[in-house]
């Protein structure tokens, strides 16, 4: 297992567990991903790796910033994608964002379906569906972008 995969697996699991459990992603998790991404990229490609890490972090931040500003995503999700962007670089980040969107959509459909079933089974059940912790979708999307083809 490469260092890149190890970073993504460990920090992705930690972020996902915390987001599911506390509905929050602590700042140290994306900060570690960012630092590890810069270190890994530098170790693999020298100074040009630092540029790749910076471009990946900026792209990861920019991709999800729009959703954050629209109120559909938390700040921790934006920072997590920026940290993972540093690890995987801008080329893989775009693929990871697509995978993340697909997985996120599937999770949203599942949450809506469960909400509808609960509402049907219990007529008194009111309110909108619960918010979706997005770190698992981000993590799975990044993992899938690293699968060799």
How does this structure look, described?
- This protein is mostly helical and 149 residues long.
- The chain has one domain.
- It has helices at 3-22, 28-45, 47-69, 75-121, 135-145.
- α2 (28-45) packs antiparallel against α3.
- The radius of gyration is 16 Å and the shape is elongated.
- The mean pLDDT is 91.
What is the element layout, followed by pairings?
Layout: H1 3-22, H2 28-45, H3 47-69, H4 75-121, H5 135-145
Brief description of this entry?
The chain has 149 residues and is mostly helical. 80% of the residues lie in helices and 0% in strands. It has one domain.
Distance between the termini: 16 Å
The number of helical runs is: 5
Assembly state here? single chain
SSE order: HHHHH
Structural class, judged by helices and strands? mainly alpha
Q: Portion of residues in helices?
A: over 70%
Shape field: elongated
What is the percentage of strand-forming residues? under 5%
How confident is the prediction overall: mean pLDDT?
91
What's the structural domain tally?
1
Major beta sheet summary: none
Q: How many E strands?
A: 0
Low-confidence parts: none
- As a whole number of angstroms, the C-alpha radius of gyration is 16 Å
